[in-house]
Design goal:
- Helix content is 77%, strand content 0%.
- The radius of gyration is 15 Å and the shape is elongated.
- The chain starts with 8 loop residues before the first helix and ends with a helix.
- The chain has 66 residues and is mostly helical.
- The chain is built from 2 helices and no strands.
């Protein structure tokens, strides 16, 4: 079954899973590298990790989906 944007449901689930794995890895790295773990640092780290995860997935798709 194709989703409205032309991709398959399996492909979309794979992209979500890939983004989640990248996010978890980047957030863990952020948490290890900061000196104080307070709520604002955690929120910023989560947001920046999400941006990095989306960029990493987009970069992988740009290279492999030719």
């Amino acid at each position: 079954m194709r989703s409205p944007d032309g991709g398959t449901a399996h492909g979309r689930a794979r992209n979500v899973a890939e983004t989640a794995v990248w996010w978890a890895a980047l957030f863990a790295l952020w948490t290890v590298l900061i000196t104080t773990v307070d709520p604002l640092e955690t929120l910023v780290g989560a947001a920046v990790s999400l941006v990095g995860a989306v960029a990493a997935g987009a970069a992988r798709r740009a290279v492999t989906d030719r």
